Amino acid sequence: MSPSARNLLLSNAATLTAALAFDWNVGWLLWPYWMQSVIIGWYARKRMLALHKFSTEGFTSNDKPVPEDDSGKRSTANFFALHYGFFHVGYLVFLLTGHAVVGWRDALVLAACGVSFVLSQQQTYAAQHAADVRGKPNLGTLMFTPYLRVVPMHLAIIFGAGSTGAWALWLFTGLKTMSDLGLDAIDRRMAVRAADKVATAPESSAS
Prior knowledge:
This protein is mostly helical. It is built from seven helices and two strands; from the N terminus they run H-H-E-E-H-H-H-H-H. The radius of gyration is 19 Å and the shape is globular. A two-stranded antiparallel sheet has the order 1-2. It has one domain. Helix 2 (26-49) packs parallel to helix 4 (104-134) and helix 6 (150-160) packs antiparallel against helix 7.
């Protein structure tokens, strides 16, 4: 198990423990989920801007191919920040309306969750960036992958934001944890495969 996957398990376990101890409903779980998703979006944009070599094969904007240069990279990263941020502003309004943080205890717990998610994502980003330097990742794929993290939040809001009880907390935390681990593995695998593809390209052409 990778260090980031282990930290994700620990972070989600700590979140579930806090939710059970303080008798949160499912809607309160959306606060740490929202924080984690914002952190992932920030690192995703940072990763795109840090690219030196990248591909835009099959990736278009306004029916035109995205150029493989700094302008294409920056416009894609900025569009992602705007679009991804728009979704999360909407979620923030929902949270402030229905699940406002009013006590110092809950604020401290949420801050601790945020710190743990930052530490986990730092490790994932370091592994991704190291592979990106060796390879030539697809810019479009990097832009769309973080949206997978929004799905559990949608499900929680639609199916159980007002649910109470341990069973609901276990259910939605389990769903989010599976999404976390799956996305972490996908991110790493894609980065490594892109790097390996570039590394073996001269051998393939030579043969």
